[in-house]
Amino acid sequence: MDWGNLSRDFSLEITRKDLGDLVDNATLLPAGSAISITYLPGDRIEDLAQVAASVRRLGLEPVPHISARRIRSDEELARFLRTLSGEAGIRRAFLIAGDLAEPLGPYADALSLVESGLLEAHGITRIGVAGYPEGHPAIPEDVLRAALADKIAAAASRGLDLEIVTQFLFDADRIADWVCTLRAQGIRHRVRVGVAGPASVQALLRYAARCGVGASAKVMAKYGVSLTRLLAQATPDRLLTRLGERLADAGEQNVKLHLYPFGGLSKTVRWMHAYAAAAPAIA
Ligand SMILES: NC(=O)C1=CN([C@@H]2O[C@H](COP(=O)(O)OP(=O)(O)OC[C@H]3O[C@@H](n4cnc5c(N)ncnc54)[C@H](O)[C@@H]3O)[C@@H](O)[C@H]2O)C=CC1
Ligand SMILES: Nc1nc(=O)c2c([nH]1)NC[C@@H]1CN(c3ccc(C(=O)N[C@@H](CCC(=O)O)C(=O)O)cc3)CN21
Which family does this protein fall into (predicted)? Predict the structure, then answer.
């Protein structure tokens, strides 16, 4: 089982509201851990920059989300990046189209952010882009595949490192199959598998519905939970055991975890700390 390798170098996703909990738990995180910062509807650029600056002061690596469809102009993107760079010295960003049905400005997708040339001009050297092991409810599979290939090519031509961060999901075999498909297509980039931290079944179902993620009774049973026990707590241990086995069978070494703390940041950090401490230092 590829347990030790999977549990090292994990990343964590926070919202502005999680900052207090992050401060309280920062000593449990390895120095330099990547902290992705969700850009929630209603957040302002200044809010995101302040959170990123706080993350940096904790000795962690801020990875702000840049939501293409919410940017109104080239000037706004430049200001956004200038602020993040000036306040938090950002080197990394996660580029996402955004859930808006229509863009507010010139950027309809993550590719157009890469092609703007503004990322490397503001000190960004590594980007994250989204991956969808289950597909996306509104975007056809061939469109997703072409978009990923285009983003990889554009990043490479600009000298930007790229990693793929998946939407969270509950089915380890879907994840492993998808990683194998990517590798068969010659895509060897690091994949960060999106996984929910410990949370109630109710919270998991709420986020799954909001994000278009499959949570059928069958999938959730495999994950280790029953949909009739909504208040029960669910952890990703079973998913990770299965995923670790499948990745080890495939000889896969370049997959890491990206944790979504849907049950609260403290709970997720403490769980991850215990999990990583128990993992044998192999691979
Ligand atoms: N995986 C994640 O963690 C998150 C995913 N999302 C949602 O996933 C979707 C795709 O984002 P990316 O992977 O960055 O795609 P992308 O920027 O690589 O675009 C891929 C293709 O899908 C189209 N597209 C993108 N967003 C769309 C939308 N909201 N409605 C209809 N067509 C859309 C684009 O025009 C493009 O042709 C977006 O709706 C995004 O908001 C949002 C937040 C987080
Ligand atoms: N399609 C899609 N859209 C998204 O916005 C999205 C994804 N996928 N995948 C995962 C990430 C993680 N996202 C989020 C969104 C909200 C909170 C959050 O904490 N929201 C509320 C609590 C709402 C609740 O409890 O239901 C908050 O307090 O702001 C966290 C992560 C958004 N994300």
Answer: Belongs to the methylenetetrahydrofolate reductase family.
Domain residues for the domain of 117 are 3-197+236-276
Q: Which of the listed residues 109, 113, 260 should we mutate to test ligand 1's pocket, taking the one with most ligand atoms within 8 A of CB?
A: 109
Q: How far is the CA of 180 from the centre of ligand 2 (A)?
A: 28
5 confidence band (pLDDT: 50, 70, 90): confident
Distance 281 CA to ligand 1 centre (A): 37
Q: Which amino acid is at 71?
A: I
Q: Say if 178 falls within a structural domain.
A: yes
Q: Whose CA is nearest to atom 30 of ligand 2?
A: 15
Global confidence as pTM: 0.96
Directed axis angle between helix 237-249 and helix 172-184, to 10°? 30
Phi first, then psi, for residue 280 (nearest 5°) are -65, 145
Is the ipTM, as predicted for this complex, more than 0.90? yes
Q: Is 223 a domain residue?
A: no
